[in-house]
Amino acid sequence: xxxxxxxxxxxxxxxxxxxxxxxxxxxxxxxxxxxxxxxxxxxxxxxxxxxxxxxxxxxxxxxxxxxxxxxxxxxxxxxxxxxxxxxxxxxxxxxxxxxxxxxxxxxxxxxxxxxxxxxxxxxxxxxxxxxxxxxxxxxxxxxxxxxxxxxxxxxxxxxxxxxxxxxxxxxxxxxxxxxxxxxxxxxxxxxxxxxxxxxxxxxxxxxxxxxxxxxxxxxxxxxxxxxxxxxxxxxxxxxxxxxxxxxxxxxxxxxxxxxxxxxxxxxxxxxxxxxxxxxxxxxxxxxxxxxxxxxxxxxxxxxxxxxxxxxxxxxxxxxxxxxxxxxxxxxxxxxxxxxxxxxxxxxxxxxxxxxxxxxxxxxxxx
Length: 366
Description:
mainly alpha, 17 helices, globular
């Protein structure tokens, strides 16, 4: 890990797939159903909250720059650090499952109906494993290339949908319950922020231009929000709230509108490529983080660490295989709760770690 050098743009490029991957499945339906025509208000409020949370994560990343997050946890928590690092690994495994299995569920229901879902998931796990095991340089390089391709596809779709918008679908505004708007904002902020935790996959000192990172981070963070914001708002503008909130995959379904007025058939498949690239790259990054955590968190022999990595892969495969066979649960809003609690716990650990590091630095200075 110490020999691998990447630049700030490459690391920041990971923010786009990490953040976008959680929104193209059930979460977009949840936001639309909860805040309705006030969705834009809830997303803007959620983004403001996410800036505050992201700043804390960024401060954690910028603190003790010669150490990775696992080493910071060891310094902060001392003897109980193996428990904390194990918890972070387990939480990351659940987030990996949430992102990758949502994609698998979509592909299975829309394209590969006759293919066993477990086979699709096994293939996804194999692809992400083969990328993650090659290290951070390869992972960020793949992510950067995928981002450029994804943005081209996104702009193509955006251009095709704009003329289909009915601005009356955004009205009336400020009619939803304030509680619903706040709940939607809070959940939006958590889902949008927690993936940013994985910038801690490297030490800040490993960046060849570490002084530029904060600037690139905030630019990419805002740009990613705009991608999500426009995708959901375009869906609302084209279909209206009554139709948008009943679709399992509203951002995907809305692309059927383009086919009516263009010479290109099946434009909806373009966004599938965007979602596929985002989800696969996000899964690559999280799986690499899990592997690095195993390497840095425990004083085991290399052979034992290798076995633990394979065990983690088996667990990642087995959990959804047994728990998520009923696809109806994946499509229900109840499914939102589990990854939300996992994400909130990961953010809480980040906050506590940062506070302890600050306190220890303060005590040491006296």
